[in-house]
Design a protein that fits this description.
By secondary structure, the chain is α/β, with parallel strands linked by helices. It has one domain: Rossmann fold. The chain contains 9 helices and 10 strands.
Amino acid sequence: MKILEVTDMVMRFGGLTAVDKLNLSIDQGEILGLIGPNGAGKSTAFNCIAGVHPPSEGLIQFNGETINNQKPWNLCKKGLARTFQIVKPFATKSVLYNVMVGAFATTGNTSEAEEKALNVLKTLDFENRKDTKSSSLTIADRKRLEIARAIATEPKLLLLDEVMAGLRPAEVDEMVEIIQHLRQTGITIFVIEHIMRAIMALSDRIVVIHFGKKIAQGTPREVASNENVIKAYLGDEYGVS
Ligand SMILES: Nc1ncnc2c1ncn2[C@@H]1O[C@H](COP(=O)(O)OP(=O)(O)OP(=O)(O)O)[C@@H](O)[C@H]1O
Ligand SMILES: [Mg+2]
């Protein structure tokens, strides 16, 4: 069953068409990667899907329901969560507080929210940081916090926007494991990432966009050997033949 279906989605900012007739779908339980050069429209596509701005044209369906004009908070309650490329926790608050903010999507009860948040922190092996002020976290831990906050909303579909940017290689490996684990818990994942070895290892399928248009899709291997993709984005370094 398709958990997400995007049909002919267009997003214009004045004269600029950031997303141009994009079509894609994600199966329940799948990890779909989204790659493309800087400014290709990846984060804009996420913003449209997550309700940050309604698309100029097209149809976005989540679990068969059209969600074009719904607000992020509503979508979050329905099980569609995202992380932001620029991580913005409540800096003066603790890790636990920040994750509880996510948990309030599914409960109005403070002690229940705390329990859910603690469970998420445990799952992400992050419990030892629960009392740390968010502003004093390393980049890797801030990314982990961003994921924890999203997980605490109990998503069915999780959109991850460059959660590995700025991480050291060992931290990237750890993040790949975390994401694989999340999928095993039943969460469908849509992931934007520039770190090729990570997206290639994670994704069941990858969609490639360039100037807002889809230029290729397929398995990581198919995409990595696609000439248009190599020309537009990968260069010869990553291309496989
Ligand atoms: N709110 C906005 N208002 C105007 N233009 C925007 C807005 N958001 C994005 N854009 C423009 O849309 C285009 C696509 O940007 P977007 O951030 O989606 O790219 P991206 O693929 O996520 O790039 P990156 O890999 O650098 O994160 C860019 O030209 C960007 O300047
Ligand atoms: Mg982006």
